[in-house]
Amino acid sequence: MINLLDIITSFTGVTTILLTLVLLLVIGYVISMQERSGIPPGPSYWPIVGNMFDMRGKRVGKRHKYYAELQEKYGDIFRIYFGNQLLVVLNDFESIEEAFVKQKDLFSSRPADKLWGIKQAVKDGKGVIWASGQEWKDARRMTVRALRDLGVGKTTLEDRIKEEANIVLDYITAREGKPFVVHDILMKATTNVISTVVFGKRYDYTDPDFLRIIQVIDMSFKSDMSFFTPVHRFPMLRFIPFLASKLLKVRNAFIKVKTFIVKHIEEHKKAFDQNDIKDFIDIHLDTCGKEGDSSVLSENNAKRVILDLFVAGSDTTATTLDWALLFMILHLDVQKKCQEEIASVVGDSRMIGWSDKSKLPYNEATLLEVQRIASIVPMAIPHTTEKDAVVKGFLIPQGSLVYANLYACHLDSRYWKEPLQFKPERFLDDTGTVSKQAAATLIPFSTGPRICAGEPLARMEIFLFFTNLLQRFSFSTSGREKPSTDGICGVSISTPEYAVVATPR
Ligand code: HEM
């Protein structure tokens, strides 16, 4: 028979265990909420999940607006928690300069191993976007050299961009003045420019392999899925059926594109001629043959760099052009001035070339203003700190995720008068020339050693597409209602969908 003493003893045992558990949980909670002194201020957060739930509901796709609220409340440098990972956002030009330029050795690494999805994606090679240290320096040197040698400023690449612009012009002509959404065709055109750079050939816009590349770029860029999905911090979530099927779809699309890239590398190997270097793959094969060249990439890493160029170079450029056309239909006076400048400098008997740029300052100022007001890549790509660092007196501990809020920088009234107004003139001096001083705090490509590796190519593409479109067509809205400029924030900020009418000039 169980006596009373045994019951009391076992009850006390269970109670002790329960009390110990509760105590451990409380201690765990208190420890997890402890912050090192000196780190930037920020909102309150939950244990384990941090501020992940702050981005629900109407904040989905509005990360830039959420950060603006936090900047208002906590100042130019604030912190949030992505799970239990500290994430610091630098919101003004000075802080970004102090970190990315003045302390470049501490701030130039990428947090590939802190984001589960990225870690999986770059298992075979980190390419240029996700590499750090010497591996990144070598990949970056090779990429920048290749983009330069393939000729920004040389006729071949300029001709290829113009050829692609002509295809877009034909497409627009075929719309016969009916309203259409322009992003799709711009995306195909800019993806084909990258295809020319890496594979040495363009694709028909209906080619299934080509369309798959675009699908992969879309998956990488559109939506908060890319850097902010909880699965990056809680990989167990990948077993939830809905997420599992989504992740599988992304994985399969990436595998197919990689297979496609391998096919191209193999074909290039067979046809390789050292005296006739035509594209990125040829440059890669050429460096492989040169002993002691430190920028030589392994084949897996070359594959990844190629993927990086598509991912980083297509959507960004297409989205910039998309915003440019949206602002042109909202500001017909600016559009008219751009066209008048083109008409007086180039006329309409030939296409506009790269060498015309210095003679078209109003067009250039308009594109700078588009890049300022739209901030296409609003938070750049995450950096991480190699060691503890201090910015504007705040401690940024080793291993923090660090975001440069380029969007906030470009709308900062301390640098830009009436920042919400679209005014290309702000970039022109009294003589009508583009003012370097006015553009000094414009950083759409970020700043420091991690600055966009494709900046020269991007600038050339944006200029050639934009001016050649305006030379041939006038753009207007399809209805009476003005399209909104309330962008949707993923890795890039895309325009809300709008239809445009193009009238031949
Ligand atoms: C208007 C178009 C573009 C914009 C606004 C843009 C913007 C950016 C930004 C903000 C970054 C992140 C920098 C950082 O982390 O601090 C970046 C990185 C990068 N971009 Fe671009 N980009 C554009 C076009 C291109 C093009 C055309 C290419 C190449 C074909 C390219 C290749 C890259 C690469 C490889 C990186 C990674 C650099 C590194 O990690 O070292 N981008 N870009």
UniProtKB/TrEMBL annotation:
The keyword Endoplasmic reticulum applies. GO terms for biological process: lipid biosynthetic process; steroid metabolic process. The keyword DNA damage does not apply. Its main location: membrane. GO terms for cellular component: endoplasmic reticulum membrane. It is a peripheral membrane protein. This is Steroid 21-hydroxylase.
